[in-house]
Amino acid sequence: MRQRLSVDLRLLLIFAAAVVVFGVVGAHDATLIQAATYGAIYAVVAIGLSLLLGNVNLVSIGQAGFFAIGAYAVAYLTASFTWPAGVAPWEQYLLATLLGVVLSGLLGVVLGFITLRFQGPYLAMATLAFGAIVVGLLRYAPAFGGVSGISNVPYAQIGPFAMSGIGAYWYAWFLVALAALATTLILRGRIGRAFEAIRNDPLAAEVAGIPVRRYTIGAFTYAGMLAGLAGTFYSSYLGLVVPDAVGITVSIDVLLMVILGGAGTVSGAVLGAAIIGFTNLYGHSYENLRPILYGIAVICVAIFLPRGLTGLLWYRTGRRTEATALPPAPAVAVPRAEIPAGTRWLEIEYVSKHFGGLVAVDDVSFALENGTVTSLIGPNGAGKTTLFNAICGVVHSDGGKVCIGGRDVTGWQPHRVAALGAARSFQNARLFGDMTVAENVAIGAFASKRVGDADIAAALTGYGVAHMRDTPARDLAFGDRRRVELARAAAGRPGLLLLDEPAAGLNADERRRLRDDITALRRDGITVLLIEHDMSLVMDVSDRVIVLEFGKVIADGKPGEVQQNAAVVEAYLGAEA
Amino acid sequence: MTDRLVVRDLDAGYGQLQVLRGISIEVGAGEFVAVLGANGAGKTTLLRAISHSEARVTGGSVTFEGRAITALPAEDIVRLGLSHVPEGRRLFTELVVDDNLRLGGFWRPRAEIDAAVEAVYERFPALAARKRAIAFGLSGGEQQMLAIGRALVAKPSLLMLDEPSTGLAPRVVESIFAIAAALRAEGTSILLVEQNARVTLRFADRAYVLEHGSVALAGSAATLAADPRVQAIYLGAHVDDARGKAR
Amino acid sequence: MIQLLIAGLTVGSTYALVALGIHIILRATRAVNFAQGDFVVLGGLFALSFVSLLHFNVWLALIGSTILGFGLGALYERFILRPAAKVSEGAVMIASIGTVYVLLYGHAMIWGNEPQPLPTFSVAQSLTVAGSTVAVQSIWVMGLLAVMLGVLYVFFERTMYGKAIRAAANDPVGARLSGINVDRARSVSAAISIALACFAGTIVGPITLVGGSSGITITVKGFVGAILGGLASPIGCTVGGLLVGLIETFLGSRFAHDLVDPLVYVILLVVLLLRPQGIFGGRRIARD
Fold first, then answer.
1. Under 8 Å between Cβ of B127 and B121
2. Cα torsion C255, C258, C259, C264: sign
3. Chains with 3 or more CB pairs closer than 8 angstroms to A?
4. Do residues A365 and A308 share a domain?
5. Does B200 touch chain A (CB under 8 A)?
6. What pLDDT, on the 0 to 100 scale, is given for residue A358?
7. Confidence band, pLDDT 50/70/90 cuts, at residue B244
8. pLDDT digits (tens, 9 = 90+) for A207-217
9. Nearest by CB: C176 against B74, B93, B107
């Protein structure tokens, strides 16, 4: 991710220079300036969509709705609306712009809420419907001129200046600069890292403490406001607004720009807008050929260059790294979160979960002693992972109670459970592939603001992954992925750590190292609950073993006891003949 | 005895995850061979690597009736006579029982399919009674029979079964194993993966016990049934709680 | 009233075929084909060329257009949808949107921007039914829809090949283990889907004129129909499509023409929010 951002910034500076040069050199050529100004307007919309699509992975084909709101707000308020006396044109324009942007933002919140339930094509369709409804209503309303829209919209008034010709060019690109600056700041900060995590793996992000829903709504709102801002300048520049020109074609055009340039970068959005803007200008004689070529370009980009043209500059598929030699066991203690005295880190009572007719977890109750290692074992399909999911909030149990640190967290969203100090790893090591090892581990500390860089560095060293801190997670060998996931879970100073099959896929050396890691966790006072099939590991490392079969607890006690328990032997080996 | 299936030094896994490490096994004509081991040991991956469905082979070879099948696509391997009844059964839940069966021998001439399906109904009368029932609505035992029946319509010379006892009542489990034994008596080789070691060892001729993706124990079923090491593999080496350390 | 009903069912027939085509491609390739409507338009244009350049009669043109659509669909799946699917599901969506552009402007480039008429399927133009005048072509449309539905039913419910295709969509792993070539099944599914689109474009061509229009609206309306009736059920998609046609026509008779589209989209959002599985999408049968 760092690579992408630094390339992005450099490209933006180059573009900024190009814009300045172009504006000075080409000032006399009205057609050129006009094309470039329209390009700028679309670039602002594209920047917002690039964030939605590339940084949060949400497809929106409804940006036209916000664009139209902005355009109509200005058009209506500066052309059709009768202001009380004494309101200067520049004040009118300013108020209209503000209204347009605010309305867009509000609608963005609404759209965000609506689309929380959807994914993939359903999401795209919902956004399409949304945009079409907004534009359709504007098209219908007689107050907004119906099909003919609103004309005679005066030029944008900034102070005493009317933005037309070269003035409009500078103003439009100033808006782009504003959007670029704001977006870059967002992407480089905490929110940007959260977005990246969400894009890579929303489930792992939620479990690590990122409030995914809130951020998703925020992303829609932001993208909506940018589109609205672009719209506010559009109608004053064009002089009119016609509903058919701000409809679905805008949504799709902007989507194409973002795809071509590269979603996820600001420069990609600007590049895409510039390309399409300029080919629009020069391709006039080949009116139909142009869009056909876009279409072909988009298909090729989708298949061969998923990160767009800018992706050529920053995306490097690294070689899979070989599994690294194992450093010695952690010497640094990673401090843990605190809970009220006398409470237990984990206590569950009568937790159950059904899926249709299938009972996955059946009235399971236990309380873990703080600072111990407990293993949850049982034959396949016994309900172990479902129980984990119920504990950390990924699924909600049907009845029963889950208490962490004395607080009833039943029904809580996973990110809130994480904030209390519970961390979890997954069966298949869900790392954020496009983020580096260090960035992955830092996300582990997202929910707890007390954790600083020193703690993250400690986690990296503690789990022996500090030397690969700048490697993108997707390039890691499997054994290393496991350790990074462990480091990420530990980075947030959890008091409760849920490990789901941490030994799966590890070779003998790696398993020995895992045993040392778990022992170190216990030494640091962290309460560990792990699901495992590797019995020698389980028996070696656990203070207590709980056995599930068909969702019920059939044994609970010290490792040696459980090993000899007839019911357990039967569950694993089958009944005696 | 000529070997029908020979697996040599097989490495296989999913994506980056390597599950099987240098596994070698053989199944002879008319043999009932079992593959046992705890979860995560690689049993299912082994079958998937052989039938080339869902798992990726990164090293080693698989030979069936003298032919190298390591690189063949799954749909071609079936047509050679190697059928796989996968974990989860993978039935065509939207289609009826009869269609599921007929599709099992999709490429074969109509007359042969008819005969094979009739044979399946004779073997599994419960299925015959539910010919036009949608597969989704069948009970667990019926679904397992349907899955096996579908594989049989392909007239395999080697049938691989992945944990056929999953979710089934003990009585039904026994009947499934009895069917496998009957097939073996008719000349079909059986390669059966199971977690339930005791029942399996009563029916199988030979068995391999996997651990961490390699063969830990191998031998005749009778020998293994009496071997205490099997239990140790499943439940870990004996732990003395008083001393808190294994062995 | 009868006229409204007939008109609604006529336009609904197009949507039904589009919805069905979307369903088939979706089940087989997990891709939502945004370009489905543009293939409908293309189908009508194919028929036009068969008639005007090759001097086919319109029935032959219908067959020709459908066959052409079949071949095109196979190519589309093989060279655009399949490579994109290897990248991600989002990539498939994007690729189909790119295809929209290629088709939309490709139509205009080859056939021009003006909508053109296709000859009607019979000489008689209109008919009196229960006191109202009805276009004969509408009867043809509904009749041909029924015929096509019948053909599809026989293929998918009564032939082994059709069932194998359904099996491949139902459980690709199980299908491979039964000797079915899943890639080929996907190709054939896409081919059938696009053939349906071209068929739809041709039968409705004499009424709505061919060319000169945007396919994306047809796609979206078809999609609305599919969601309304149940995206996972072929019956649902067909019924949903017809319903959308009826709703659109009735709304159009009561409300201003410009309000109809937004209202249809509102219905889509409401259905998505309240009952996303549609009318016929009861229990989830297939494991998706």
1. yes
2. positive
3. B, C
4. no
5. yes
6. 80
7. very low
8. 998 999 999 99
9. B74
